[in-house]
Specification:
The chain has a domain of about 325 residues: Alkaline Phosphatase, subunit A, CATH 3.40.720.10. The chain is built from twelve helices and 19 strands. By secondary structure, the chain is of the alpha/beta class.
Length: about 475
């Protein structure tokens, strides 16, 4: 917060404080290996111990994927169809409607015979390559709090996102691209809850994720506006950047040591370097036809293909929002679940195949989940209408994990006979965050940031590494 009034701030100072990034893609964090914030840089930093994974691709199923319609088949729901769930009294605040079996077909898949829904038939064929955690749970029953807990590890604090924590802990391996990228096809609109998923929170802004609006994927110049300078090329462009740097350094010298301002100045140099790197990294037309055919042309597919190209080039953490709204928030009915689930199924299956062929799966942690699950009951009557979708379920949901040191081909934990609550080996969100950091070579109890007089961590004051998930 400014200490002085706006009337006392010069136009130049206001511009300096606001910053000017490259065409709205969040270049405040793109400071490269020279940037500093609170005495730190974005140069690659050694982990606490030998990592199993080098990078993360997180497909976030915003809205909350229904586990009982995908990876957690519950035949008991057919037995009690249209009846109250036994053992779940009406005093429970989240008790709505009666038992509702899944309308989708399931069949056994893999060596363990996990019943997998037809919605994920492609991933079902690869189920021995992934780990399915069936006992996830969270503290928050509403989207905003649950997403914040999932992404940032805290509901109450302006906490940094997990990608920011990873960037803070490990830095970047490519000075010409961001360490942390969030992909969302918003066409100018942010996802629900804005930038919560990729924010830096109380950390310096260099750790914030770079949002790339993937609404226009066909043309790299529409995907990242102003990625090419239409007026200056080569040496002339370099001379312009050198002049800008000298002017900015004079501006900095007049104000004394200022890490934030120095970092902002370096972002101009980063933008210059990124004009070459991004043209290559973000251009999907450079992929061979058989790879493009493998993924398909849906939004989730195009973004996961781009995510693969980014991690190949040293981007540390890629967060993928398949759509900008909440496509998995299926309250009214489940018909809206089918198309988006099938799109994500083909996309995640293609990604795993592609990473495996390229020898990247062993070093890339792939995560697929939403902020919570869905109830095994129908939504029931609301505002005079019978709703045949499902309400939020924080007591139980699934997460799919692959690569990056994860034990493949296992089912971990279990829910009760209805899929209402995790009962065997429950895994809290903080536990999964601790495990993710561990796979990256980071001790979640030691990765701390001092703020407001105390040391904060991604896992708050909880979390334990789930060693059974690690190969």
């Amino acid at each position: 917060m400014f200490q002085e009034s706006l009337s006392s701030v010069s136009r130049r100072e206001a511009l300096a404080r606001c910053g000017m990034g490259m065409a709205g893609i969040g270049l405040g964090m793109l400071l490269g290996e020279e940037a500093r914030a609170a005495g730190r840089t974005l140069a690659a930093t050694p982990p606490h111990f030998a990592p199993r994974a080098k990078q993360v691709i997180h497909l976030f199923l915003n809205g909350g994927l229904s586990h009982v319609d995908t990876f957690d088949f519950k035949p008991a729901l057919s037995k009690y169809a249209g009846k109250p769930l036994p053992g779940v009294g009406p005093d429970r605040h989240d008790r709505h409607g009666n038992a509702m079996p899944s309308p989708f077909k399931f069949q056994p898949r893999g060596s363990h015979g996990l019943m997998v829904s037809e919605l994920f038939e492609n991933l079902g064929r690869q189920i021995d390559d992934v780990c399915v955690v069936q006992s996830m749970h969270t503290d928050a029953p509403e989207h905003g709090d649950a997403r914040q807990l999932w992404h940032c590890g805290s509901i109450a604090q302006n906490a940094p996102s997990s990608g920011a924590w990873v960037t803070y802990g490990l830095g970047t391996e490519n000075a010409n691209l961001p360490a942390f990228v969030a992909l969302c096809p918003g066409n100018g609109q942010l996802p629900e809850d804005g930038s919560t998923g990729w924010r830096a929170g109380f950390m310096p802004p260099i750790y914030q994720g770079t949002l790339v609006d993937t609404g226009q994927m066909r043309d790299v110049e529409k995907l990242i506006r102003n990625v090419r300078n239409p007026y200056l090329k080569g040496a002339a462009h370099r001379r312009q950047m050198d002049l800008l740097r000298r002017i900015n350094e004079r501006h900095l010298a007049a104000r004394g040591e200022d890490d934030t301002l120095e970092g902002r100045i370096q972002s101009y140099e980063m933008a210059y370097r990124m004009q070459a790197a991004a043209t290559d990294a973000f251009d999907l037309s450079r992929e061979p036809e058989h790879v493009k055919k493998l993924y398909g042309d849906t939004k989730p597919a195009q973004q996961l293909l781009l995510a693969r190209r980014l991690i190949e080039r040293g981007v540390r953490f890629v967060q993928v929002w398949p759509y900008h709204n909440q496509p998995f928030d299926n309250h009214e009915n489940l018909t809206s679940l089918e198309p988006v689930a099938r799109h994500c199924d083909r996309a995640i299956s293609a990604l795993l195949t592609d990473l495996k062929i390229r020898g990247l799966l062993d070093e890339t942690l792939v995560v697929m989940c939403g902020e919570f699950g869905r109830m095994p009951t129908a939504e029931g009557e609301m505002e005079g209408m019978q709703r045949t979708g499902r309400n939020h379920n924080p007591h139980c949901f699934n997460v799919i994990l692959a690569g990056g040191g994860i034990r493949p081909g296992i089912i971990y934990g279990a829910s009760d006979e209805f899929g209402y609550e995790a009962v065997e080996n429950p895994v809290h969100v903080h536990d999964l965050q601790a495990t993710m950091l561990h796979l990256l070579g980071l001790d979640h109890t030691k990765l701390t940031y001092r703020h407001a007089g105390r040391d904060f961590r991604l896992t708050d004051v909880g979390g334990k590494v789930v060693s059974d998930l690690i190969a």
